[in-house]
Fold:
Amino acid sequence: MTEEESHIESRMEGKDIYSPPEEFKEQANVNDPEIYKYAEENYEEFWADLAERLDWYEKWDEVLKWDPPHAEWFVNGKLNAAYNCVDRHVENGKGDKKALIWEGEPMDETKEYTFSELKDEVSKFANGLKELGVKKGDIVTFYLPMIPELAIGLLACARIGAPHSVVFGGFSPSALKERINDAESKFLVTADGYYRRGKVINMWENAEEALEGTSNVEKVIAVERIGRDDVEYEEGRDVVYEDLVKDQSKECEPEKMDAEDMLFLMYTSGTTGKPKGVVHTTGGYLTGTSATHNYVFDIKDDDIYWCTADIGWITGHSYIVYGPLANGTTTLMYEGAPDTPTKDRFWQIIEKYDVTKLYTAPTAIRLFMKWGREYPDKHDLSSLKVLGSVGEPINPKAWKWYHEVIGGGECPIVDTWWQTETGMMLITPLPGITDLKPGSATHPFPGLKADIYDAAGNSLEANQGGYLVIKRPWPSMLRTLYKEPERYVETYWSEYENDIYFAGDGARIDEDGYFWVVGRIDDVLNVAGHRLSTMEMESALVDHEAVAEAAVVGKPDEVKGQVPIAYVILESGREASDELASELRAHVGNIIGPIGKPAAVRFTRDLPKTRSGKIMRRILKKLEKGESAGDTSTLRNPDIVEEIREMVEE
Ligand code: WT7
Structure:
């Protein structure tokens, strides 16, 4: 950034205000700020009304049972998520409306499903799953690319009451294996491959490798996305998706699920090496995601809505599949990369389908900025009405570019803060009400209470940086961590009183009550919007025979937000070299997946440590940012700091 740019940026911080255009305000689903007061004072009624937007077999006896830190929402209510996402729209006369538009990476490949076609596909797959022995409560693991079968599969599971556990398709075999084993999953749905940047990625080989390390998987369903002829299926274990579904009945009675039955499991990185299995339930989750999707994107019946996330992450679960489909919205899915075949692919898709609402990540926006505005300028983007951002703080410069170049200066930007654990957006503008400040996620969703605490649990004054906390339960909050109930309490509800949710983010509230989230305060990195545990990367490094000790820290990056930097102490007798550095990067990539590859490996003879031997990652982080190391007097080996600084500066 030039001095002038950083000057502009700091001048803008918290200053510029964008009010919703009058015209937008008038037609918005919610435009009365009274909603905040109403929801705050009538919290349970507010959510009960939003739950009424869904179809229930049986209504609840109680909206919220809060026994901190355990919440139950819509107690004893009965519903089915797939019925709500699909069938009811058909019954309400929207059977011919497009539900799902899929765009493959190869330019000419597309598929579209109306709500009634989607209902048929979901039912057929659900019957196929049953035929293979999937029962209510069985966890089905998905390891799939962005193809329609993934969305259909989630809904098929929901239809029969089998929780799904989706593992991001870019994860490595060992990450997949770990998640299959932890969930004790007997069923895996995967594919022969997919397209990425014009190349075929052989997914099947990864799945096979993962399966070698598990004993619980009994059935594997293979979607033939590519139609390779070199895949060898195992008799009795493997079945091809097409063969499984082709003769299935289109009738499949949805299971009547309890509001608190698990809808899915989603693994996410935590501070320790072991991923956390976040448990989401049915009634509250669907209420929360559909309501926020409707309000935050100001959903209209003729919307073409596109969220560019992968369904392998929570954003895809909540805002490609469940939220939009529960609202009867046409949702678009894209298989491939933003620069394939050319750097205007996103804008071409928006023009082709007249996309009205776009939800993407700051890292993508920064990449587009770098490529230049000539790519979006080639296309008519005037169909766009609301632009969303999620995954990390959006810097004001990227915000303004998004607003002007993509939104033509007319679309409100909704910068939505939330987490895998929260299931739905918690801090977000409402586009017909909120005056926006570029870079701020603005205010808690109506009714929610959020605050900034210091370490002792005092609520901080305006503009003081501290820890973000949520002070009220919300319908789509995680209920527990799978098989780790104590870790649930420890991680989220033990920093302060047991009814205060500790988000793990640093933030401040400005003098106008706007929230500014800075980022994770724990050893979790946010690389291009993906959450990565430094501990996981460190254990992957020490798993290599040349490595004696390792520390991983995040370094600021213009496009990705942060990139991992690995510090490595070698075993004696091993020598540092560029080859070894690439070998170590590849090694971490193999264990975690390509997104976990360190951007650089720095060989060092020692690491800054306290007298008790704890690695001071904080110091490494500062050096990577080019800042002063601060107080090093408590270190056992302060002299190493200078040595590392020289290495970093080189
Ligand atoms: C972490 C959650 C659920 C969204 C996808 C990532 C960061 C997310 C924002 C935002 C600032 C954000 C936080 C959060 N984050 N959205 N709008 N502004 N930071 O889900 O992998 O569970 O990561 O992403 O640090 O804790 P996730």
